[in-house]
Amino acid sequence: MTSFGERPNVHKAKYLLGQTMLTSISHVHPVFVTGNANKLKEVKAILAAGTSGVEVTSQAVDVPEIQGTTQEVAIAKVKVAAEKLGTACVTEDTALCFEALGGLPGPYIKDFLGTLGHQGLNTLLTGFPTTRATALCTFAYSPGPGQEPILFEGRTEGNIVPAKGPTNFGWDPIFAPVEGNGRTYAEMDGKEKNAISHRYRALEKLRVYLSEKAEKESNQ
């Protein structure tokens, strides 16, 4: 998958984001920042499916957004969130990378989708020999203000297809993961999607890290 370099911060759009507390008995308590209700629901379901006893709540926080790779965006947001809230924080950014387009739309998928729609994204691949795509999710964790963030990434390979299934969750209707037997994310129930999604794979790494961190701290 093509890696995107740094681009100029051409604008700072303020996002009214949800501040989501990840609480757990005897666990570290970072704040997960999101303003997307569907994303919050999905993260909550993934965390609830594990054995770490993580609970999710939310409240509003203003966080500036830069343009760049998923890693750069997640890191920038988590640094600001940690400074504002004075505690450990988690942020996330996603990308959808078309093989035929050298990795585009990548981290700019939200803008591409808003401008072109599902059909337009399919049209971009007209005439190309492949519809392969990679869904990428990056979580950034900051232990607190002024501390270096740690990244957790998940990837799911698939293909771009004509929209199928509900259309209320981003590009889910046009991404058919390899493990999906021809179905799109949108055609899967939550449990099935959350077992193979790019977000699940990144979040599971984060959960393992936080569980191990909590265990070490409890033994000190």
TrEMBL record:
SUPFAM superfamilies: ITPase-like. Belongs to the HAM1 NTPase family. Binds 1 divalent metal cation per subunit; can use either Mg(2+) or Mn(2+). It comes from the Eukaryota. Pyrophosphatase that hydrolyzes non-canonical purine nucleotides such as inosine triphosphate (ITP), deoxyinosine triphosphate (dITP) or xanthosine 5'-triphosphate (XTP) to their respective monophosphate derivatives. The enzyme does not distinguish between the deoxy- and ribose forms. Probably excludes non-canonical purines from RNA and DNA precursor pools, thus preventing their incorporation into RNA and DNA and avoiding chromosomal lesions. It catalyses: dITP + H2O = dIMP + diphosphate + H(+); XTP + H2O = XMP + diphosphate + H(+); ITP + H2O = IMP + diphosphate + H(+). This is Inosine triphosphate pyrophosphatase. GO terms for molecular function: dITP diphosphatase activity; ITP diphosphatase activity; metal ion binding; nucleotide binding; XTP diphosphatase activity. Keywords: Cytoplasm, Hydrolase, Magnesium, Manganese, Metal-binding, Nucleotide metabolism, Nucleotide-binding, Nucleus. Its EC number is 3.6.1.66. It is found in: Cytoplasm; Nucleus. Homodimer. The lineage of its organism: Eukaryota, Fungi, Dikarya, Basidiomycota, Agaricomycotina. It comes from Kwoniella heveanensis BCC8398. GO terms for biological process: deoxyribonucleoside triphosphate catabolic process; nucleotide metabolic process. One of its GO terms (cellular component) is cytoplasm. InterPro entries: ITPase, ITPase-like_fam, RdgB/HAM1. Mg(2+) binds at E65, D93. ITP binds at residues 34-39, 77, 93-94, 169-172, 193, 198-199. It holds the Pfam family Ham1p_like. Its cofactor is Mg(2+); Mn(2+). The keyword Ligase does not apply.
